[in-house]
Design a protein that fits this description.
Layout (H helix, E strand, L loop, with lengths): L4 H5 L9 E2 L20 E6 L5 E4 H5 L4 E8 L4 E12 H4 L11 E6 L4 E5 H4 L5 E6 L2 E2 L9 E3 L12 E7 L33
Parallel strand pairs: 1-5, 2-11
Antiparallel strand pairs: 2-3, 4-5, 5-8, 6-7, 6-11, 8-9, 8-10
The protein binds ligand MTE and molybdenum atom.
Length: about 200
Amino acid sequence: MAKPPSVMDGKDRLPPGQYLTTQFPVLSYGPAPKFNPAKWDLRLMGMVEEPLRLTWEQLRELPRATQVTDFHCVTTWSRYDNRWEGVMVRDLMRRVKLKPDAGYVFILCDGGYTTNLTLAEFLDDDVMLAWGHDGHDLHPDHGFPLRLVVPKLYGWKSAKWVRAIEFAINDRRGFWEVRGYHNHGDPWTEERYSFQEDPED
Ligand SMILES: Nc1nc2c(c(=O)[nH]1)N[C@H]1C(S)=C(S)[C@@H](COP(=O)(O)O)O[C@H]1N2
Ligand SMILES: [Mo]
């Protein structure tokens, strides 16, 4: 079967084992939660000197950013040039002081979904919390009011409906990470499944 021209053009842009789509599939465990801007909040907690709670209004007052990145789902679809709008994690993190022992980040979402990252990967300069996509508010199914965007890792790390960010000393696996997905999830080395993990890590 002939591949679409864009795949041929952007070969080194498409991670191994992925195909390109211009659709924006919805991959969710459970329905999109209802959003009440008067009650919604975002918490930064755990290994921080002072926990932080931001209302929807306060979140929207943080410095805004847009960023165009590719998205790679472990189920093998990739979508190029997503224009995300929101807040860079590095700007949000100016509002808290981490304790020196913090090494891992646990993302907690409305509906019970979770995912884990190393602190270094969470603090990477392309990681953001987004409320907009391609010029519109995110569709609720895609994570409105707020989703994480981690361009360098498979899509399951880009948690939708984020409500809390917990900084921790030790790593702990999130929703998909305990259900057979890789703890790290680098699409370029195809870290798809937990059985691929190096027991030494
Ligand atoms: N809260 C929550 N976030 C989630 C998921 C989910 O089921 N629940 N699915 C993940 C997976 S597997 C992928 S590939 C992306 C998909 O994002 P999309 O539905 O906007 O395409 O969201 C991730 N974030
Ligand atoms: Mo996914």
